[in-house]
Amino acid sequence: MKSLNLLAVSALATLTLVSGLISAKSASAQPAGFDGSYVGAGVSAGATSGGQGNDPAAFGGNIQGRFAIPQSPVSVRGAVLWTDQTSAIMPMLSYDVPVSNNANVYVGGGYSFVESPGKNTPLGNRNSVVLTVGAEAEVVKDVVVYGDTKFGINAYQNSPASALSFQAGVGYRF
User: Fold this and answer.
1) Is the separation of the CB atoms in 105 and 73 below 8 Å?
2) Strand, helix or coil at 160?
């Protein structure tokens, strides 16, 4: 129940932020945003536990990437979250909103494929639908920092529990 409340508050805050940014008047300064593609690596921390044995939250790593679609606010993304037990592979689509020059916030969705179902990843232990919200920015030429939150719906075996994980990393823009 706690994770549903956290999800509801996160979703409301994200929708408020995104709708405010989208509805900005044309007289407002329009930031250029971040328009490049990148691949990066970092850390991933599960914030929930669930499953049949109340599987503990897991800590691991991530590899994430973004392929920008030119002249479009939509991007194709991919992520791999792993632990010492297994990994979850996630293809995703996102809607990107510029917040300043060389920085975006994004919301998106996709699907998580767990390589070894039943073994913990930072985002649960079974295949599931995934929602994400995050931010990315180019901090120096071709160096990108990113962070996001992923929510896996019904992401634990033998349980209706959902999973929440946080990722952060550094990438190379190409």
Assistant:
1) no
2) coil
Q: 85-115 pLDDT, tens per residue? A: 999 999 999 999 999 999 999 999 999 999 9
Mean pLDDT of the chain: 86
Rounded to the nearest 10 degrees, how much is the dihedral formed by the CA atoms of 39, 7, 93, 38? -10
Say how far apart CA 111 and CA 90 lie, in whole Å: 5
What is the spatial distance between Cα 44 and Cα 60, in angstroms, rounded to a whole number?
Answer: 5
Could you read off the pLDDT of 65-75 as tens digits, one per residue? 999 999 999 99
Helix (H) or strand (E) holding 8: helix 2-22
CA within 13 Å, CB half, 35: 7
List phi, psi (to 5°) of 36. -100, 175
What is the residue extent of each domain of the chain?
Answer: 2-22+34-173
**Banded pLDDT at 147 (limits 50, 70, 90):** very high
- In angstroms, the CA 92 to CA 96 distance is 13
Separation CA 62–CA 148 (nearest Å): 11
Neighbour count for residue 121 (Cβ, 10 Å): 29
Would you say domain 2-22+34-173 falls under CATH 3.90.1150.10? no
